User: What shape does this take?
Amino acid sequence: MIPKIIKIITSVIVFFLGVYQISENYIGNGIFCFFISLFFILIYFKNELIFLAFLRLRKQDFDGTKKWLNRITNPELQLVKKQQGYFHYLHGIILSQSNLNQAEKHFKLAIKFGLSMSADLAMTKMSLAGILMQKRRKREAIDLLAQAKKLDRHGMLTEQIRILQSQLKRI
Assistant: This one.
């Protein structure tokens, strides 16, 4: 993984290289350098290892997802705040298959750090509500489901939320 400061320094150097290329009448090279500079800025805000972990998760490859996440050794220093949220979100999804206590901890950290998309935040709160429901903490689960329902603007989770609410009524 490329450190954050290296990404920014490289972006600035390549940007000024592009300016120099344009001043020397190499317009095509200058424009290409600008695009390369934008690429380094993009990977500053969107971590490449988290992106690769999401691709593995999309294929339901939990071991591969965990492998990519384990390459991030110190998330507090290597990731910006939203990326830390997604780091814990992915760990929560992986651990929800086996260890509910650890999954709950990671989902709470993901909510604390924040996620950039409201659908992801709704999914996190819904998953946390499911864990709390299994631990018989009904009041907290109801609150989280209500928050998830508000965050689900496109209606992608309405069926899952409805199922969890019906299960909560039986507790």
Q: What stands out?
A: Residues 1-45 form one domain. The chain has ten helices and no strands.
